[in-house]
Amino acid sequence: STGRTQEIDVVVVGAGQAGLSSAYFLLKLGLRPEAELVVLDADAGPGGAWQHRWRSLRMRTVHRIADLPGMELLQPDDDAAAADVVPRYFAAYEARFGLPVHRPVRVSAVREGRDGRLDVVTDAGAWSARAVVNATGTWTRPFWPYYPGRESFRGRQLHTADYRGPAELAGRRVVVVGGGASAVQLLAEVSAVADTAWVTRRPPVWRDAPFDEQAGRAAVALVEEAVRAGRPPASVVSVTGLAMTPAVAAARERGALERLPMFERITPDGVAWADGRTLAADVILWCTGFRAALDHLAPLRLRGAGGGIVMEGTHPAADPRLHLVGYGPSASTIGASRAGRQAARDVMALLGQAGGRAE
Ligand code: FAD
Question: Looking at the predicted complex, does its ipTM rise above 0.85?
Answer without folding.
Answer: yes
